[in-house]
Design goal:
258 residues, alpha/beta, Rossmann fold, globular
């Protein structure tokens, strides 16, 4: 499946995408780690700046669609600084469990510290692990979520299959991610904003323009709405649907393990 321009096309064999650059898969993993090591301490501030605060509404809607119930077990993959985990914890209550998982130790530490500062201990646990090799037995979780993390994974199809594997029958995977704007005018305006504002804010706030230039590029290389839905179905998920937010700048995908 190939799309023209800056829209997604998968790599096969020995190359993967790091923004607009093709690199060996192991190099992408290491470069992404360096990006998030660099931005971890300013990640939340930058999210507010880049999205004009809208990311909070998008995450709230994602948690609502995830539908976690009291007593259930939830895995938040690439959970970063804990925005979804904090909300999910209130849904499952002390009889449930939220596992915040991230491959990056710096991001995981910031997430843990943020939640502890807010007085949130149980029912949240923390695991440092790769989404492509989840350290859980099959059918462990009722809900799996991933917010703004899938596009940074080296082998997205493998990660999707892993997230499906650890779901219980009837469980659901919820993906919140940047996507393809629905209208050409919106796309052009958004491109102009992203490639100008993100590196500028990165340099001003995080002293790191290059990491935010990569993040802008990574959005363009991520599968669009339909392509991601196809990938989810190929991973074994059923009843896959998606919801466009902000005119398609962001989308929420949901699929079930039947």
């Amino acid at each position: 499946m190939t799309r023209r321009g800056s829209i997604w096309r998968p790599y096969h064999g020995t190359k993967s995408d790091f923004g607009f650059t093709e690199v060996p898969p192991e190099e992408k993993t290491e470069r992404v780690k360096e990006v998030f090591d660099s931005v971890a301490s300013r990640y939340d501030i930058m999210n507010d700046l880049m999205s004009l605060g809208l990311h909070r509404l998008w995450k709230r809607w994602a948690v609502t669609l995830a539908g976690a119930l009291p007593g259930q077990r939830v895995l938040d993959v690439a959970g970063g600084t804990g925005d979804l985990a904090r909300q999910l914890a209130s849904h499952v209550g002390r009889q449930g469990l939220v596992t915040l998982l991230d491959i990056n130790a710096s991001m995981l530490a910031w997430g843990r510290d943020r939640l502890l500062d807010k007085g949130i201990t149980a029912p949240v646990t923390y695991v440092q692990a790769d989404a492509e090799r989840l350290p859980f037995v099959e059918c462990t979780f009722d809900v799996v979520t991933v917010a703004f993390g899938l596009r940074n994974m080296t082998h997205k199809a493998t990660a999707l299959a892993e997230m499906r594997r650890v779901l219980r029958p009837g469980g659901r995977l919820l993906i919140l991610e940047f996507s393809k704007p629905r209208y050409d005018l919106v796309r052009r305006l958004y491109d102009g904003y992203s490639f100008a504002a993100l590196p500028f804010y990165g340099r001003l706030v995080a002293s790191d323009a290059s990491s935010y230039r990569y993040l802008a590029e990574s959005i363009r290389r991520h599968p669009d709405q339909e392509s991601l839905a196809v990938m989810m179905r190929a991973a074994g998920l059923q009843d896959v649907t998606y919801y466009n937010l902000a005119l398609g700048i962001v989308a929420i995908h949901r699929g079930f393990r039947i």
